[in-house]
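yo, FGENESH: predicted gene_5.178 protein is done. seq:
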Amino acid sequence: MARESHVRFLSALSTALLATLLPLTVRSTARHAFGDTTRSARWDSRHAVKEAFNDLLIEEEDYKTLRDSIDTNDAFDAMGLAARLEKHDLLEFRRLASHLYGKAAKWDRSISLAKEDKLFKDAITTAAVSNSTDVAEELLRYFSDIGSRECFVALLFAAFDLIRPDVAEELSWRHSFHDTYMPYRLQVERSRADQIASLAKKLEELSSKTVAKEEEENSQPMLGLMPQTLALGYY
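structure:
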């Protein structure tokens, strides 16, 4: 089995390389300019190798190696691969499709796929890294609508800086999540208190510096009047 896979990979790789390098060789000869063509050939050859390798991993259903390959080398059509994987029969390959959309900042599509397969942990992670209040709050509404208290609270803490407290409290009230919501609310109150204390300290320090500066300025002699005073002494 391993030998057959190796042979198929080499065959696919050889075909891809030939299809890529032959046209480039012709262009380089015709143009007599090797700089840009060489760089293009280098990228195209890497792209061909990557595509052939990904094809083999999909055929062998080796989703773990494919994920490592995706995360360590970007010389492939990411969106093309994502569109292909989201239709795969195996859950882990559809999960990779969601991962690819997330890497491309296509947050809504990534989360949509995760929700379809009930990969709620992945959806929460994507919402948190999106740095988007709209994305995070939309997912929070989804969790409240389906009655998932655990996911609701998990998202509140994972996207703590993205979700507006009033939105969280409203959804909690509407869906009777009071007990589940309370730890988050206490954390919000604590954060607010810490922020107010920090701001008060900064204002106090600024006020002290201002007073000290004014006292220093007032303690200095008015040198500008000395020449006039001395001058008046001669008359």
